[in-house]
Design a protein that fits this description.
2 domains, 33% helix, four-stranded mixed sheet, five-stranded parallel sheet, Rossmann fold, alpha/beta, 17% strand
């Protein structure tokens, strides 16, 4: 099946930027997603489709024989599965305030895995129980970049950026009551952070945080981007 005429896939992105294109799946039909998977497969490029609910997987499998992988926690598809981690990238820690942040954190972790980056997930270290974070600080020091996901008031990235020297990327998550306003309170809190050098991506944008981490890793890898992975 040909890709839709209004879909222009960026197969050169890995060569140009060192990262693969991600496909937003939530508002695409099953047929569109299958055509895109087939196009990536034909081009010999890894496909990453985000925001695909579990209830759609059976329908998608009926439409294609391609052995795509469904990553339930991240609500994403990949074809093929992520490559083995390349130790030259070092480690990225993906930190989340609570289990309610898991989908966004898992999306970030999967996006990094698709680029051969090793990650460690650190969950349930929100500021309501700060001792839980303090007990993990020495382990977090081993990471080259920290991606920190938090909903509610979004204070966790500020706390971590005030305690650790690595680049910290804050991800506001659309979790919380009332005035949390679907992650807007967390976003505003992170943007208003007094922690020097904290970077912030948009609400629930785990993929964007992962790509920011990739740019940091690539810029510090002997001053050049890693060679494209075949």
């Amino acid at each position: 099946m040909p890709v839709d005429p209004d879909v222009c896939l960026d197969f050169d992105r890995r060569q140009r930027l060192g990262v693969v294109e991600a496909i937003w799946g939530e508002h695409k039909s099953d047929e569109q997603i299958v055509r895109i998977l087939e196009a990536f497969h034909a081009a010999g490029e890894l496909a990453l489709v985000t925001r695909v609910a579990a209830c759609r997987i059976a329908s998608l499998r009926q439409l294609t024989a391609l052995p795509f992988e469904h990553h339930a926690a991240a609500q994403c598809l990949t074809l093929p599965g992520p490559p083995a981690a390349d130790e030259r990238h070092g480690l990225v820690a993906v930190v989340a305030g609570g289990s309610s942040d898991l989908r966004v954190a898992s999306e970030a972790r999967l996006a990094l895995a698709c680029h051969g980056v090793a990650t460690e997930m650190v969950l349930d270290v929100g500021v309501a129980g700060l001792h839980r974070l303090l007990s993990r600080l020495e382990a977090l020091r081993q990471a080259r970049v920290l991606i920190v996901c938090a909903g509610m008031e979004g204070a966790l990235p500020t706390v971590i950026a005030g305690l650790l020297p690595q680049p910290v990327i804050g991800v506001p998550v659309s979790v919380g009551y009332g005035v949390s306003a679907g992650g807007e309170a967390a976003l505003r809190g992170m943007l208003a952070s007094c922690a020097p050098g904290l970077s912030v991506v948009n609400i629930d944008n785990g993929y964007g945080a992962a790509m920011a981490a990739m740019r940091i890793l690539q810029s510090s890898a002997q001053g050049s981007c890693p060679k494209p992975v075949d």
